């Protein structure tokens, strides 16, 4: 399907690009916000990423997966954005959580309704360092494999694994530190 | 390892965390603007190249006129000088009018 629309766009049918926008804008937004941590900035990043993708569509190799190629554009655009903004150094989360606590949190969040779980993840992701959130987003939400994450981010496989491990630890630590175990009670 | 799998299991039905967005109109508009700018830049570039070629030809003509032998003086000499000045002004006009450097730069700035 992607290949058909890519050919349409390359043949001069600009409106065929709508297919990509409709299909990938929400996924791209998820990836962008995991890096820039702000909705308005993430929308700007998504817009810039689509324009970059449109302009460089001729360079896209058909043997590659469009999502991987496009996600790498989004990640690069978002990283450039925060570099331009010169964001302050992130506070490194202290990992002080036991296996029992993790199991308790797993049980608690496993019983949440889908909407509540989404709110909870969104709140936790806002507090996790950029690279860890990015890897968690790509692995757990976008269901990318570690190899695909490597292609999208240009991190090494071992780096992705370390970030996943640290991201999971941060996830549980924030649940504990922020006492975010009942997101449905605070109305956010 | 067990925790990792458990988290994956819990999050497997979540494919979006954020509220859906709709940027289709904005992005298509931005792309059209981008395309328009590119067409304009190509147009100005073509004009600029034409102006350069024309300037080159005119300069060659000027060179020929100025290299005429000194024996051709008086009326002819004045004609040569007069024509040279007119041609120089004409070159300047073409450079300014067809080059349109200000508009060209604005378009480039819009793209970057």
Map the helices and strands.
The complex is a heterodimer of chains A (188) and B (112).
Chain A: H1 2-10, H2 17-36, H3 39-55, H4 66-85, H5 99-110, H6 114-127, H7 130-141, H8 146-153, H9 157-177
Helix pairs in contact in A: 2-3, 2-4, 2-7, 3-4, 4-8, 7-9
Chain B: H1 2-11, H2 24-66, H3 74-99, H4 101-111
What does this structure look like?
The complex is a heterodimer of chains A (188) and B (112). Chain A is mainly alpha-helical and 188 residues long. Helix content of chain A is 71%, strand content 0%. In chain A, helix 2 (17-36) crosses helix 7 (130-141) and helix 3 (39-55) packs across helix 4 (66-85). The longest helix of chain A has 21 residues, at 157-177. Chain B has 112 residues and is mainly α. In chain B, 80% of the residues lie in helices and 0% in strands. Chain B has helices at 2-11, 24-66, 74-99, 101-111. The longest helix of chain B has 43 residues, at 24-66. Chain B is rod-shaped. The relative contact order of chain B is 0.11. The mean pLDDT of chain B is 76. The chains are: A mainly alpha (188), B mainly alpha (112). The interface between A and B is medium-sized, with 40 and 28 residues.
Features:
heterodimer; A: 188 residues; mainly alpha; 9 helices; 71% helix; B: 112 residues; 4 helices; rod-shaped
Number of strands of chain A: 0
Uncertain residue ranges of chain A: 183-188
For the largest interface, the chains and their residue counts are: A-B, 40 and 28 residues
Write down the oligomeric state: heterodimer
Helical fraction of chain A equals over 70%
Unreliable runs of chain B, pLDDT <50, ≥5 residues?
none
Radius of gyration of chain B: 31 Å
Radius of gyration of chain A using CA atoms only: 18 Å
Kindly name the structural category of chain A.
Answer: mainly alpha
Average pLDDT rating of chain B: 76
> What would the average pLDDT of chain A be, to the nearest integer?
86
> Proportion of β residues of chain B?
under 5%
Tell me, briefly, the overall form of chain A: elongated
Main sheet of chain A, how many strands, which sense, barrel? none
Approximate helicity band of chain B: over 70%
Would you list the SSEs of chain A in sequence order as H and E? HHHHHHHHH
Work out the helix count of chain B. Answer: 4
- Computed structural class of chain B: mainly alpha
